[in-house]
């Protein structure tokens, strides 16, 4: 179904107020400096517009005139191509493929653990915290290898990773003993003015922005 008249002349994002995949898209938009209309959504009670536009009623959902996109990976790749400056993917195919695989691993392995902590039972949350701590510990060498995640420049992979790192404290996940590289990585991202612009009021309250 086509977008409603009020959305046809603007880029519109349907987003929840505290979700790592929605935050991922908002961070890409902020990095690109793109103006858009934000419609906040309660995923348990999606608005009629979203029900009409997206058969899964899911967020994030991006609308641009008659184009409707959903799934954060699809939305962020589109935004990087639609608004090419600054580019958020490397030029060479090998590096692009490596980052795409990393983002897929984040979606399949990390994001479910975040959601289990946020919405699961106490037992599910504790199991998810253990698993997320293990994932962080195993990833320490990756944070040490480059200034950004698997890449010398900020990329779409950082837009996927940074929202998780931002939430660690609120999720009750301490950094590993040798996790200074993760802390330094997060601060590099969080000090960027675009990161602050990407935050909803609810996300801003999760922790302090670094000086």
If you had to describe this structure to a student in words, what would you say it looks like?
- With 211 residues, the protein is an alpha+beta fold.
- It folds into two domains: 5-82, Glutaredoxin; 93-192, Up-down Bundle (Glutathione S-transferase Yfyf (Class Pi), Chain A, domain 2).
- It is 56% helix and 8% strand.
- The chain is built from nine helices and four strands, in the order βαβαββααααααα.
- It has helices at residues 20-32, 48-53, 72-82, 93-119, 122-145, 156-171, 180-190, 193-198, 201-204; strands at residues 11-15, 37-40, 61-64, 67-70.
- A four-stranded mixed sheet has the order 2-1-3-4, with helices on one face.
- α1 (20-32) links the parallel β1 and β2 (37-40).
- α4 packs antiparallel against α5 and α4 runs parallel beside α6 (156-171).
- The radius of gyration is 17 Å and the shape is globular.
- The termini are far apart.
- The model has no long low-confidence stretch (mean pLDDT 94).
- Belongs to the GST superfamily. HSP26 family.
Overview in brief:
By secondary structure, this protein is of the alpha+beta class. It folds into two domains: about 5-80, Glutaredoxin (3-Layer(aba) Sandwich); about 95-190, Glutathione S-transferase Yfyf (Class Pi), Chain A, domain 2 (Up-down Bundle), CATH 1.20.1050.10.
Query: In what range is the share of β-strand residues?
Result: 5-15%
CATH classification class of the largest domain: Mainly Alpha
Number of helices: 9
What is the share of helical residues? Answer: 55-70%
According to DSSP, the number of beta strands is 4
Element string (H = helix, E = strand) = EHEHEEHHHHHHH
| Alpha-carbon Rg, integer | 17 Å
CATH architecture of the largest domain: Up-down Bundle
The parts where pLDDT drops under 50 for at least 5 residues are: none
> Main β-sheet, in a few words?
4 strands, mixed
Q: From the helix content, strand content and strand pairing, which structural class follows?
A: alpha+beta
| Count of folded domains | 2
Q: What is the CATH third-level topology name of the largest domain?
A: Glutathione S-transferase Yfyf (Class Pi), Chain A, domain 2
* Outline type: globular
Span between N and C termini? 46 Å
Side by side, the strands of the main sheet go: 2-1-3-4
How confident is the prediction overall: mean pLDDT?
94
Domain GST N-terminal: 9-87
Family: Belongs to the GST superfamily. HSP26 family.
Organism: Luteimonas granuli
InterPro entries: Glutathione-S-Trfase_C-like, Glutathione-S-Trfase_C_sf, Glutathione_S-Trfase, Glutathione_S-Trfase_N, GST_C, GST_Omega/HSP26, SspA_C, SspA_N
